[in-house]
Amino acid sequence: MFEKTLPIGSVVLLKGAAKRLMILGYCRYKAEDQTKVYDYCGCTYPEGFVSPDQTAVFDHDQIDQIFALGFQNDEQIAFRGRLKDLLEKREQSQ
User: Fold this and answer.
1) DSSP string, 23-86
2) pLDDT, tens digit, 9 for 90 and up, residues 12-27
């Protein structure tokens, strides 16, 4: 149900990590390597966004555990559908 489209604000723990992350956005890359696009970007939880250089990028398959889902309403559900379509098109073009 939430493959690559967890809502903004979701709190997750990555495999092998000790610190939780809160999802801030989608389809991001590292500043030093713009060839790889990651599913999510996030900040540490509970600290929140501190600075751009303290955000993480990661893929959905790196998530070990979901602690909380971000806010969901009709607008977010519609966006998730558009995002899913865009991600599928991106994967087909690679």
Assistant:
1) EEEEEEEETTEEEEEEEEEEEETTT----GGG-EEE-GGGEEEEEEPPP--HHHHHHHHHHHHH
2) 999 999 999 999 998 7
In a domain, 62, yes or no: yes
Residue 59 domain boundaries: 11-93
Please, are residues 26 and 82 in contact by the beta-carbon 8 Å criterion?
no
Q: What whole-number distance in Å separates Cα of residue 94 and Cα of residue 26? A: 18
- Residue 5 belongs to some domain of the structure: no
pTM over 0.70: yes
Of 15, 9, 2, the residue nearest 65 (C-alpha): 15
- Tell me whether residue 25 is in a domain: yes
